[in-house]
Amino acid sequence: MLKKLGILIIPITLCIACSNDDTEEILIDTSMPQGSFTTAKNGIFVEQNDTGSTGTAQLGTDENGIQFLHFAADFSTNLATGTVTVYLSTSSEYKADPSSGNPDLRLIGPVSSTGENYFMLDPAAASKFTHVILWCGSANIPFGYAELN
């Protein structure tokens, strides 16, 4: 029994003795800009349907050239429905056209919090997109838009 216990203790001791506690693991969140964020276009949200949508939207790149849509810390909208979705659009109006694959809209994703938000755009957005739209699918109404200049 002691022999078996010794066989277990020696490898554990060696592992502990050989471990290097000086290295620190660094996790990089690739969904966030790396380094500085450079704004190429920005716009201010225009509220629609009494939803309280306000704040700044910015389109830009990080130090690695990855494109992001950024909602600044002043961003706010009514999130009570839980279904506010962000789109890039060629106009200030949400115009769904399923038969043609929505060529004038690009789904970015849901927004789940007010304040600062980043959305990585991969692939990068085409230059034809000039607006950010906040759309509530459950109510089928726009919550606001920002024209990007």
State the main characteristics.
8-stranded antiparallel sheet; globular; 1 helix; 34% strand; 11% helix; single chain; mainly beta; 149 residues
Short note summarizing the structure:
This is DM13 domain-containing protein. By secondary structure, this protein is mainly beta. It has one helix at 2-18; strands spanning 38-47, 56-61, 67-71, 84-89, 105-110, 117-121, 131-136, 141-147.
C-alpha Rg (nearest Å): 24 Å
Average pLDDT metric: 86
Helical amount: 10-25%
Overall spatial form: globular
What portion of residues belong to β-strands?
Answer: 25-35%
Protein name: DM13 domain-containing protein
Organism: Fulvivirga marina
Domain DM13: 43-149
InterPro entries: DM13_domain
Task: Give your account of this protein's structure.
- Mean pLDDT is 86; it is low at 12-19.
- The chain has one helix at residues 2-18; strands at residues 38-47, 56-61, 67-71, 84-89, 105-110, 117-121, 131-136, 141-147.
- The protein contains one helix and eight strands.
- It has an eight-stranded antiparallel β-sheet, with no helix packed on it.
- The longest helix is centred in the N-terminal third of the chain and has 17 residues, at 2-18.
- Residues 43-149 form the DM13 domain.
- This is DM13 domain-containing protein.
- Pfam families: DM13.
